[in-house]
Amino acid sequence: MVVNIVWKVNVRKSANNIETSENQTKCADCNKPCTSANIRCELCSCQKNIQSNRLDAKINLENLAKKMKALSNSKFPPCSVGDIVRVKIPDVDRGRGDFRNILMTVIEKTDDDFYKLANKSGTIEEMFSMNQFSMCSEKLVDLESVSLEKKSLRKLANEQSLLGGQGYKRCNCKTKCMTNKCKCKAIGNLCNSKCHSNLSCLNK
Hints:
Layout (H helix, E strand, L loop, with lengths): L1 H22 E3 L6 E3 L6 H34 L8 E5 L12 E9 L5 E4 L4 E2 L8 E4 L13 E2 L1 H7 L23 H4 L18
Parallel strand pairs: 6-8
Antiparallel strand pairs: 1-2, 3-4, 3-7, 4-5
């Protein structure tokens, strides 16, 4: 009698296991059991949604970048090799009495509309986009006379400066700056209003 009861219980358990196994299916991605209503388990479905959202965000950013580039191209005229441009010198790269701009010529243009600029003093190391300079109608810099020596924009600004460039060099002379003991005269610069407390000077 007891044996029959145990046998019936085992039969019922095996039947229940068969029913539950029939109701469950494996996930298409991780092969773990999941409900028959879903092809993927909850974890795989969540990861799939994340990947889909990331892909949509990437596509939207690329479309936005294309629109911004088209808008920029419509605002700024196209530039070609040999054109003369005027580059603004940042305040940190020039002295207070120096020129605010420097004339350059375009010597190279990339497929992404970036430009390499140069003049007689040297070639700027970094590339420029169209919104970083303005074009000039006059041909003031000859393409054949440019120097290919790589220099920074600050160094080029210092070379065209009459006051020593960034840093605003000055002297504290009290002898009218007549000899090379004067810092300004020794390097070939003229004294400025910040030198020697506005005392009389012969190096102006």
